[in-house]
Design goal:
Chain lengths: 149, 353
Amino acid sequence: MKKSVLFLMILFTGLNLFAQADADAILGVWETGSGKARVKIDKSGDKYVGRIVWLREPNDENGKPKVDKNNPDANLRVKPLLGYSMLKGFEFAGNKKWDNGTIYDPENGSTYSCTITMTDNNTLDVRGYIGVSLFGRTDVWKRVVVKKS
Amino acid sequence: MANLIKRLLLFFFIGLITLPAFAQEPEPDDEEEDFSMYADAELADGAKRFCTNKVLDQSPNKLISIGYDFQGSHDMTVGAWGTIPATTVRVNQVSGIRLNGNVPVISKTNMLLNIGYSYWEAHYSMAQFSNNPFVSTLDTRGLRTAGLMATFFKPLNENQYFIIQAQADLNGDYFLPDFEPLSYLRYSGAAIYGWKKHDRLFYGFGMSRTYRIGEVNYVPIMLYNYTFPSRKWGIESALPVRAQLRRNFNPRTLAFFGYELEGQSYRLSNIEGIEGVKNPELRRSELRIRFTFERSLKDFIWISAQAGLRYNWNFNVDEGDFFRGFFGEQPYLFENSLTNAMYFNVSINLVSP
């Protein structure tokens, strides 16, 4: 009896670790389709979030670091874009898919529902949409490898 | 001892299972991080980068658009043919709904396929009764156009791309339940090769088969979309079909000034009283010089208001659909003219992410 319980627990633990590895496959640094930004996806609790960690053009026309000037909330318009959380609330749904999250587009200050699908180890299909997935657009993100200095 | 080891093992596994659920990881936002390390990075597996089809601050793609178009009063002079004399009538208004859609069905970094549709109505209201068959069919039936289009954007690398567009339209004096035979479909399309020099400049050159001047023609086309460094102004154009200067007040408020050449060939299947004429085709084309204001009402719902001058380019009637080109000398069945009119167009739109 004890051996059976122990076996089941080891099996469950093993499965849990594999599932966790699948869920965490999204972690890392990704470049957006336009190549204008890189986003680091981290885990926060049991959710996955993403921050802007690099901008191709980090400064505005006055040479100052870009801020979130298009945010509908006036209080947030002074917040620097570098370090900004643009992906929020993603949960692993299995089958290489993360959903229930949102994506923020600093270009226009809009937040969209979003689903992320990993098509291979280095590629994410990031689909932002309005209401239903049909009314959306998919941006393909590529994993970037940070060079060790 | 054995029991103790078993209990420790049990405790270890239970801990392993439950720890992740209770683990409180810090919010990444709270972490201090040196972002400079992410500048020196390269794409995994040597993946390629591709250019996008938009410049910075370009007006948003309209997924769904429901609009109303209105032209004010003007005169219509209809030429003579056969025993039917020329006549001039006063048109009180031309108005109708305009439904449009343009949905990306494949949206990848290395490929974009948009499928679009359109349905436009033009109802003519004449100031007085006319027994001219052409005027009569416009007055009683109006004009309709229903179309499907596909636009394929293929970036080749970070700077080059090509676009293929195909469109099929059913235009005529039909009523909605009684569509014309599909053999009356009018096909147009374009192929463009171009460059995206940087995030603010996108241009290309190509050829198009178009009915924009009312009858089928083959004309060179030039795409040119540019945003000035200040990012307050821009140009959006597909010459010679349309060009407009854009003013960006903010990402949710835009204004434009420019023109568009609108045109189609309409099969007049229901015209009565013109015995001996087969397959009359109205070659309708108008140049619209206009001011447009677009603003987000809430999130992704945008309103667009447009007003300007409608200048008649072509309103003649041919017998059958054929290629005349710029140098063809085939005569029209009868030639018509319209005086210019003011117009406005309002629409409510669902815009794309």
